[in-house]
Write a structure and sequence with these properties.
Chain lengths: ~475, ~300
């Protein structure tokens, strides 16, 4: 919680509140005054926060520290708006299914949920969620000057938009960057890779399995958010185009070259077990000192800097995605955003929007990040202004050399909103591709056969 | 309400009438039906209805990703299924998985039961230890095996394999080894069940037959072949039936260990139906796959039940 620094406005507001509540007794007075100081930055917005007071909404989130911090602040939201928020924590693997089932059945169980950007095409095609522009434009619900939509990281906003309409408000996000062991690189006089080719040769130079150090690791386990989180970037960097001539294409020479690079590095320089690893396994291995470098979400920095488990604190450096043969860098941009369930009655939709506006606001973002009293700090705040705050930068640079520069560089310059095919059929396509990539990696099928088979399976999904 | 009726009927019985017994029996039947009704309805609602709904759904195209294509398609999903290579692969994987785990469970379970029967001391302890894997959740078992046991370079099994001179193996990343691994995990978890059932049956076998066989100088192998096995037959068949039905519909352990991978190497039919329905969001086709699994399970257990009655 921020320290209480009275400004003219808060003093005035506290005074008004005190006068209004004077008859209610000293206990109430103290409580009201404290809350008012907390709420002052929100009350600067020219909207009536109390307009749907008394509503109750349920929000599904994943069990992650960045949402835990938000849950801790929920009483402030209740005091501000009079809206009760019930949080339900669902692991990432299940939250997509649970929310899809809720949205299909139109029961409106979850007013909003932590949503995968790749699902908005599906949500929008079914009209399961509301476009947010009407809420943003409604003066009684949103104060644009206070909310400052443009301050929210543009890459994440475009990832959550379909045909120019925003469907989910980014709350916390990530971008993929190179993470490397600065001490090992320095010892061999290596630099973080600028190209995929250099990344491979760096991995070769550092790969010494007999000393239990492997050159690199990428996500190997099959799944739309797993190996299909890394491969699409490589595919795009090799010049691949998902929508070749308007037709979804996953095979062809660029795809084969991209998959060959991925399999090559996984087979030669990654621990054998990595074929079955997701990002926590990679981050664990890296923090134990057995992996020299990996390319993954910048948010894994908190795992490799956990003082209780990590052996590599102070030895970590960061850099942007290496460039591909096409000369492009393509990171995977990703965020947990909040959409509004279209099955809700109007009052609840308003309550949900007020919640989303509160959670995505610069003030709440700061209070759940560098201004948060608890031990966990967020590395995925949604606002450019917070990323420029010296306190936040100081906190983030504690993760290792070049962390903020690499992350912001990647977020602002290396993004490509179509790094994955954004179509409603994505869940099926992602899973089919994930299986194909893994069967090629495990030698069950050749690269070409795996990709051609995936193409054959994906075509009927697109025909409809 | 109903109880009072019965009591008043009881009082009225001071003057017995000819049709009194019949009335009483009828009332009791009605009372019994009233008591059973809630349970029966609950059973219908939770088992029969979802099953019928599943069959009904399988006659539709229900694709959440493309809602505009949804509609009644009759048997089309089943036609697609028959020419779906991945369906046949997953069916084959299911059969291999079921066949090998059930065989292993019966053989190892029986061997252990015979061994423990001869133990003079510590039988109780052995039973307690043996039952432990059964009480663990399959998902937990999957996690343990995936992270602590089978991870190459890091896991216990791989450590043992390296020390035994076999070298490090990619237990879950190689298609064949992954299949061997999931079979081993299922067998590890469920052999104790076979062991407990067979041990209980062994303990109840009449001692005098063995006594007589020994007097006739039958060898240990002869006694096992001619006496133990035939007498244990009902128990063995029962174990096979129960384990087959569970193995065919196994899910949690495979899902956590390999999720059907690498590629589709360990994708049993149940897992394929799940992925089609909930990951790919093709509910109609997923239902058709589930119905196919149901039919396969009914046929196989039907055959096994027939075998049980055969002698």
């Amino acid at each position: 919680m921020p320290s209480f620094t009275p400004t003219r406005r808060t003093l005035l507001k506290t005074g008004t509140a005190a006068a209004a509540l004077a008859t209610l007794g000293p206990a109430f007075l103290r409580q009201a005054a404290a809350q008012d100081a907390d709420l002052a930055p929100y009350k600067a917005a020219q909207i009536d926060w109390q307009q749907v007071s008394g509503e109750t909404i349920t929000v599904a989130v994943i069990p992650a520290s960045y949402f835990e911090n938000l849950i801790t602040l929920a009483p402030q939201f209740k005091a501000l708006t009079g809206i009760d928020v019930r949080f339900e924590k669902i692991p990432p693997a299940q939250i997509r299914q649970k929310s899809v089932i809720d949205l299909t059945s139109k029961t409106g169980t979850y007013a909003t949920h932590a949503a995968d950007p790749m699902y908005y095409a599906l949500y929008a095609a079914n009209k399961w969620v509301e476009p947010l522009d009407t809420y943003l434009a409604d003066k009684s619900l949103t104060d644009p000057a206070w909310f400052k939509l443009d301050d929210i990281i543009p890459a994440w906003r475009s990832a959550n938009g379909i045909d120019g309409k925003l469907y989910g408000m980014p709350y916390d996000g990530e971008v993929t960057i190179q993470v490397y062991r600065k001490d090992l690189y320095d010892a061999k006089g290596l630099k973080p890779a600028d190209t995929l080719e250099a990344y491979m040769s760096n991995a070769a130079a550092l790969n010494t399995p007999n000393d239990r150090v492997w050159g690199a690791a990428l996500r190997g386990v099959a799944g739309a958010g797993q190996n299909m989180y890394i491969y699409p970037s490589i595919f795009r960097e090799f010049g691949g185009d998902w929508m070749k001539g308007g037709k979804l294409t996953v095979n062809g020479p660029e795809a084969e070259a991209a998959l060959a690079w991925y399999i090559d590095i996984m087979k030669k320089y990654a621990p054998t077990a990595a074929a079955n690893w997701n990002w926590p396994d990679i981050a664990d291995a890296f923090s134990q000192g057995t992996v020299a470098s990996y390319i993954d979400a910048h948010s894994s920095a908190s795992v490799i800097n956990n003082p209780e488990k990590s052996k590599v604190i102070g030895k970590v450096g960061y850099a942007r995605w290496p460039k591909g043969p096409s000369g492009k860098r393509t990171t995977s941009i990703w965020n947990w955003g909040f959409p509004i369930n279209a099955a809700l009655p109007e009052k609840k939709r308003k309550a949900t929007w007020l919640f989303i506006q509160w959670a995505a606001s610069a003030e709440t973002q700061a209070r759940t990040a560098h201004k948060f009293a608890g031990p966990t700090k967020r590395s995925g705040v949604n606002r450019t202004s917070v990323w420029k705050d010296p306190d936040y930068i100081k906190l983030m640079n504690g993760f290792g050399e070049n962390f903020v520069e690499a992350t912001m560089g990647a977020l602002q310059e290396d993004t490509d909103v179509d790094w994955r095919p954004r179509v409603p059929q994505w869940p099926a396509i992602g899973d089919t591709m994930a299986t194909a990539i893994q069967s090629a990696l495990s030698g069950q099928a050749t690269i070409k056969a795996a990709l051609d088979d995936a193409q054959r399976r994906i075509e009927p999904m697109m025909r409809g | 309400m109903v109880t009072t009726a019965v009591t008043s009927a009881g009082i009225a019985s001071e003057e017995p009438r000819s049709d009194f017994g019949r009335v009483l029996a009828q009332r009791e039947r009605r009372f019994a039906a009233a008591l059973l009704a809630p349970a029966f309805l609950a059973l219908l609602a939770t088992t029969t209805f979802p099953l019928l709904f599943l069959v009904y759904t399988s006659a539709f195209r229900m694709d959440l990703a493309m809602p505009f294509t949804n509609g009644f398609v009759g048997f089309e999903n089943y036609q697609v299924l028959l020419s779906d290579e991945r369906f046949w692969t997953s069916l084959l994987v299911s059969l291999v998985y079921t066949g090998s785990t059930v065989t292993l469970q019966v053989i190892i379970g029986l061997a252990l039961a015979l061994l423990v029967m001869d133990m003079k001391r510590g039988q109780g302890w052995f039973r307690v230890i043996a039952i432990l894997p059964v009480v663990l959740s399959p998902a937990v078992v999957g996690m343990i095996w995936r992270t602590f046991m089978l991870a190459p370079e890091f896991g216990i099994v791989d450590f043992l394999a390296i020390n035994a001179g076999l070298g490090s193996k990619n237990w879950l990343g190689d298609p064949t080894l992954a299949m061997v691994s999931v079979i081993a995990i299922h067998t590890w978890q469920w052999t104790p069940f076979a062991f407990m059932v067979l041990l209980a049956s062994l303990a109840s076998l009449p001692e005098d037959i063995y006594e007589a066989a020994r007097l006739d100088r039958a060898s240990a192998w002869q006694r096992f072949r001619r006496i133990t096995l035939p007498l244990l037959r009902p128990a063995i068949v029962m174990v096979i039936i129960m384990r087959t039905m569970v193995a065919l519909t196994a899910f949690a352990a495979i899902f956590t260990v390999t999720a059907g991978g690498p590629g589709t190497a360990t994708e049993i039919l149940n897992l394929y139906a799940y992925r089609k329905s909930f990951t790919e969001l093709s509910i109609g086709y997923g239902s058709a796959l589930a119905v196919a699994l149901l039919i396969v399970t009914i046929i196989i257990s039907g055959i096994l039940f027939a075998m049980r009655r055969a002698k």
